[in-house]
Amino acid sequence: MKKKINVLVRILVMVAIFVVTIYLVNIFQNRSYKNLAAEMKDAELPLAYVCYGDSLLNCMHGYTGEVDLTLLRDSVTPIDENKNLEIMVENDAFKDASYSYEIRSISGDSLIEKGDLEAASGTDGYDVLDISARMDLKQDMEYMLVVKLKSGDGRSASYYTRVVVNDNYHESQLLNAAKDFHDATFAFDKLESESVIGTYKQEYTGGGTGDSYGLGHVNLANAYSDLLWDGLKPTVISDVNTYIKEIDVNYAVIEMEYKAMSITSQDVMSYYTVKEFYKISYKDVPVASQTDEADGAGTDGIYFDETASYDEAYSDEQDADTVTETEPKITMLSYDRYVDEYFDKDGIDAINNVYEIGIVSSDDLEYRYTEDNKKIAFVRNGQLWMYDYGDGQITLVYGSGMDDHANDSNTYADHDMNIISFDKDGNMTFAVYGYMNSGDHEGKLGVALYTFDYTTLEVDELLFVECNVPYEAMKSETSRLTYYDGDKFYYMLGGKVNAVDMKTRQQSYIAEGLSASDVKVSVNMEVMAYGESEDQSSNTKLTLMNMHTGKSYEITAEAGECLICYGFKDSDMVYGVSSISDAQVDVDAESFVGTRYSEESRDNIPASRLYIVNSDGEQIKEYAKSGYYLMQVDVDTNLLYLTRGEKSDSGFKSVDDDFITFKEDDTKETIGTTHLSSITGYDRLYFTVPSNMYLSYIPALNITKEKIDPDAASMIMTVVRDKVTYHVYDNLGLSKIYDVAGDAINYAVSVSGIVVSSEGEVIYRQAESQEYNTIASGIFHRSTGSVDASLGDCLYMVLTYQGVQVTEDDIAQYTDPVEALNSLGKRQGIDVTGLSLDMLLGYVSSGIPVISRISDGRYVLIVSYNEADIRYYDPVEDKEIVVSRDEYTDMMLQWHNESYTYVEE
């Protein structure tokens, strides 16, 4: 018995010593830490969907903060005239949730109706919400539906989709067409002649060729085999989330997003995130006509006499037999599939000495490497990785969903990252901006500043700035500038370069009233430059700011000159000097066809001299050749590409291009990227390494922890716009932002996109124009008989056409025609300067008059057109005038196609 007691005592003593030792070791190891660390959290907010028959559409992620609704264009849901809608919330985590809804104007500032919702329990853990709008919603007008969730423990989130009332959008047929095409891309053994893909490819009239990134981006111009994955034979492993992005009576943009997996004969598995975009039109076409085919019959069954007068030929009252039988015609205007492979740490290729990044939809890869090339930090699919060649380790620094690719919540990547600094020891500073997908800020929009300690594998949040700007709009600014010098954090958002003092927790700004294009930033984000005015002719000063040293330098123009910043080569700023008087000189646009001269450079004043200055403001290069002007300067990797012109009586005309090259140190090998298809049979992107490094071992994986730091700073920044801007949305979301609607529309045409104003109005979307139209009978003529008063006369006629009673004095107080239309009218006025005549006639096709400047500077009103001629009312002559389209185009060119109109709600 005594022996048993002694053994028990010994055991207890040993346990006590073990506990004390662990306690002391824990104190010793963490003596320099203020806080403990915890694993990064997974996403918790439930997802919501629109129920459409047996399908779920328009997946919605929850927002827990304020959102600028005019910039949120994730999806649109068409509803019939009964105004009923069913929402399903995937609610396994939020128990005892209560729900309500709001219907708001598309700008979000006007509440149409609101109400509480009773949730019915559905299958598979869904809460089912039936919404029946009570108010009279105007047909074809978009509204914002807000579904609000509040959990039993007080957590809340809001879900958004646009809604529009129309029974004739044919969304069912358009969705089925997209699904049939999607399914056909996985019918790997089907012949092209038997597939719907073959039918759509035959009808495809779009330009371009297959993309250069292999399977990373394919479209209807690609070979049929590429559309069928060229033998990769992937399997869909997640739900196929389908979104209606845009829709009207004859046109829809549909997105499908899903995750896929492929496996090789060697059992190598690869995972992909895939986005498909369908632009589809619907049209009822005649299949039988009751009219006899005779000379003079139009293709639409309407007769006209080619010898008749303009009014006789295009009268709204002409008699015609009607077509009684039609059938639906669905046309695939475009199809684009973007594939991005998830990074796999096992992708070391020892034979070729490369590290696989994967199939990519774009070469735009964010990465940094250390001076000795031993460490690489890079961003892929919402994940931040760091590879350490020396220690044979790889670390997932930030991000989730590594082993759960089918999880829509954890893999939602509506955010991006900038690597701010990366030192030789593997420590890193980085910024995350956009929608926060998990953690303490889940559901919020904003910018977060983090540090990563490689020794402890801890990620520490230093600052979170919450904002109301959705990711699509935020990335156009914030992606270009985030920088931390140890004391201040700089970032661009809301048309400002903002600076947060980390000690005082106070925010200020360096410059304001800037568009993203006004600020130029070096690749390492340490140096930036901006002008004093968006108008180049008024831009007589450039400010160069070196945020690394905290010093600023000003460059000023001589009298009669102005400045333009073209960008940075590494940390060196490139700028040009122009004569202000050259702003009035025309450009012979035809002579620049086939050159790099772009639509975006149209407003730039050609420069006669070019300078390069370093980050300390010291001039290191001058370029000037007598008689030659720089129309556009492109900063490429190792050269400046100079698109040049010379001045003549007809304006600036194209001459041979020129170059400024930069000598690189060819003896110094560094980390790079390259495309290779010989290794796996498919074009993939790879990291290349210097020849003295040998990639032979698959690195060990590290997972970071998030430091729990009560000293982290948080603040809220609400962006309030002080001017109307125009946003171009292409396949992948918000592409560019413009100050002039005409510039935005021209760019949207080139990328088959749409234009939305910052007030939420759709300014432009692809649509068929009528072959002819007239609104002349609805225009009340007004003439004061002078060129100077012609703009006021046209504004008076347009406002009267809208049903607004105005006086001459009302109009006289405005110098800006857009401001006059917005302040006095019922519709949103827009500056469509720069649009071609064909584009302007699209407004007249929709019954909207266009104010246009011609000849001696007078303003006229375009009121009618056919395939050969246009008719305009001239308030100086007080009469309607018919001229050919070519003649009118020449008259417009004298004033750079200056034009104004408005958009319907």
From TrEMBL:
It comes from the Bacteria. The chain crosses the membrane at residues 7-25. SUPFAM superfamilies: DPP6 N-terminal domain-like. Keywords: Membrane, Transmembrane, Transmembrane helix. This is Peptidase C39 domain-containing protein.
